[in-house]
Design a protein that fits this description.
Layout: H1 13-35, H2 38-45, H3 49-53, H4 59-74, H5 87-102, H6 105-118, H7 122-131, H8 133-149, H9 158-170, H10 173-178, H11 187-205
Length: about 210
């Protein structure tokens, strides 16, 4: 008697989609948007282009999904550290996580690929900003409002303050990383830059 197929071993549609995005991530970062192709993704996936197109109807749609989901997965992790600690420790933990993220090889390469494609399709740049930096600004501004309500910060515009915090965290290191002039930051460098950024932020917005 023939054995029944192992249904449980078959990947679900969600699992297949995740596998496609993981492979697309590598292809886009290796080749850039222009150099990447659906054929390359399908070949690495081990299936037909027809299967790939049943999930994403174009290379543009695949790239947009990759950008949105990559940012959604990585961004919130910045705020999962040292929740409930006093303000300075909390801001330092967020700064540390942010500097580590924007200095990572993934972040640098993804931003380079997005920036190149955004010249042709500005909506890709908007998607990246809204899902990544924009979402982080909104999340941080809400926390800064809470600190201000507790009498710990002096704020006129929490969103602008959150944007300033990000600028201070990036400093010149981020530009050096984007230009290939600095390596991935070590824990010691991240700690130093985080402490500097928070100290500067408190000089601007702290209560004397």
């Amino acid at each position: 008697m023939a054995s029944l197929p192992n249904i449980a071993a078959r990947p679900t549609r969600d699992q297949r989609r995740e596998a496609i995005l993981a492979i697309a991530h590598d292809v886009f970062l290796e080749h850039g948007f222009e150099g990447a192709s659906m054929s390359q993704v399908a070949a690495r996936l081990g299936g037909s282009k027809g299967t790939l197109y049943s999930y994403f109807d174009s290379k543009e749609a695949l790239f947009e999904a990759l950008v949105a989901e990559s940012c959604a997965q990585r961004g919130p992790a910045m705020f999962d550290v040292n929740v409930g600690l006093p303000m300075v420790e909390r801001l330092t933990a967020i700064a540390r996580a942010y500097i580590e993220l924007v200095g990572s090889e993934w972040s640098v390469r993804m931003l380079q690929v997005v920036a190149a494609e955004a010249r042709r399709r500005p909506e890709v740049g908007r998607l990246f900003y809204d899902a990544g930096p924009g979402a982080a600004v909104l999340r941080l501004s809400a926390e800064l409002d809470d600190f201000a309500a507790a009498g710990l910060l002096r704020l006129d515009d929490s969103r602008r303050a959150a944007e300033t915090f990000g600028i201070l965290c990036r400093g010149t290191l981020h530009l050096q990383r984007m230009l290939g002039q600095a390596p991935v930051p070590t824990p010691a460098v991240i700690e130093r830059e985080a402490a500097r950024a928070v100290a500067q932020f408190l000089r601007l917005y702290g209560i004397d």
